[in-house]
Amino acid sequence: MSRLFVVTALLLLPSVMVAQVAHLKVKQDGSFVSISEPTGPNSNFTLNVAQNTTNSGSAANIDYRAISFASDFSSLTITEIIGPIPAADLTGNSIQNLGVSFSTADLAAGSIDLSCTIVFNPFSETCGAAPAGTISLSFTETDTASTRVMVLAEETTVGNLTMRIHQRSDNSSAKATGTVFGTTVIGGDAQVGINHSSTQEAIRSQ
Fold first, then answer.
1. Does pTM top 0.85 for this prediction?
2. 11 φ, ψ to 5°?
3. Which element (helix H / strand E) includes 25?
4. What is the SS3 assignment for 175?
5. What is the pLDDT of residue 57?
6. Which of 36, 106, 137, 167 could form a disulfide with 46 if both were Cys (CB 3.0 to 4.6 A apart)?
7. Are 198 and 167 in contact (CB under 8 A)?
8. Which residues of 23-61 are buried (b: 16+ CB within 10 A; e: fewer)?
9. Spatial distance between the Cα atoms of 147 and 156, rounded to a whole number of angstroms
10. Does 3 score more than 80 pLDDT?
11. Residue 66 three-state SS
12. 15 burial class (0-12, 13-18, 19+ CB within 10 angstroms)?
């Protein structure tokens, strides 16, 4: 599936996913995992889970986004799950072996938890909470490739979601195994690493 087509389709939907307004900002220090891969010919997902630092101690946050087109491209379903989760959902003493054990029941109040199906012609939109489920993944560092991010400042807007990232991190390639909401992952484009006083901000507006 063409990523350019996906982005173009989303940007042409000014009223997509207006059912929820949220503004979340977290400071990320410590381990993180990420993976991006297709789940079918017309669908894919991205997942990032990172350790946070807060005034009350350690925590973690999840950023899961998925898109799925109908086989005839007559409709599109977008799922977004972004927010704080218990620190225990991201486990491991080093980036050599990290694990994610997440349930949608773990999301904190005020998180972005949304799934919208958009029918293109005639246009209609139906939104609600994202389907309940779990993510269970194990990440093993392969160190095939490594990257040091000295300073990254990035803002992206797709539809009604704006993501702002300021990142300093050490990243390494990884292999991931397990399931994401019932779908077995094949390893995909996976990474593990360490954030250094990075921040992530998610803004959903009408």
1. no
2. -70, -20
3. strand 22-40
4. strand
5. 60
6. 36
7. yes
8. ebebbbbbbbbbbebebeebbbbebbbbbbeeeeeebbb
9. 21
10. no
11. strand
12. exposed
Cα of 68 vs its chain's centroid, Å: 15
Task: Give the rounded distance of the alpha carbon of 196 from its chain centre.
Answer: 19
What is d(CA 9, CA 13) in angstroms, rounded to the nearest whole number? 7
Instruction: Please write the tens of the pLDDT for every residue from 127-144.
Output: 899 999 999 999 999 977
User: Cβ distance 59 to 86 under 8 Å?
Assistant: yes
Question: Which two structure tokens, joined as six digits, stand for 158?
Answer: 């797709």
Predicted local distance difference test score (pLDDT) of residue 21: 59
Confirm if 117 and 81 have CB atoms less than 8 A apart: no
